[in-house]
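User: Can you predict the 3D structure for this chain?
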Amino acid sequence: MDNIDANKMDDVVSANEMFNDRGIVAEEAVVEEVTTAGRDTFILISYRNHNNCRRRGRNMVRLLVTSNTRIISEDGSKLCAGDIFEGMIVNAVFSERMTRSMPPQSVAYSIEIVDAGSKVAITQGVIAEIDYRNRFVYVRSTGNSRTVIRFVVNEDTDILNSRCQEVDFRRLCPRIKVRVTHATFMTASIPPQTTAYSIQMF
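Assistant: Here is the predicted structure, written as structure tokens:
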């Protein structure tokens, strides 16, 4: 990835300027790469066209995800930058003001995940039990109260509060509602087990 100065990116468009910037809409864009630099997250997307461009071919832009970026799933649920992975299909709205780098860089206004792809799945439910010693979280699915999944929480798992702020693993406790982004594969055990990429309380 090219060297990116997030402070300079902040200068590209401020929160107040969002209201004066119609924004570029890229529908069904592919998330090519997700990188972090300190507390900043950058998402490289490719797309065929957008509302302000008629040229053919595939375009690419690197988006800076800020605290003002609205991230949602297809059903409208609020998500965080940690829920975005390579291979996902998204609808993105970003500033018309971009850097002259290759690929250009812009600030993301909103990102809607329309297809999570084959790498990740999202389960929403209530924590039924926690094994702090072995770092297991048992979640009872909202869609089916009989379904309990055991999630493995490793060092790379993001634990987030309702404001998408990182918190300690021990902040999780039974009866808390959570949204878990996890691997699609599961063991054949009872309960089935898989790895959690992020756990967000809400």
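The longest helix spans residues 6-12. The CA atoms of residues 80 and 164 lie 6 Å apart.
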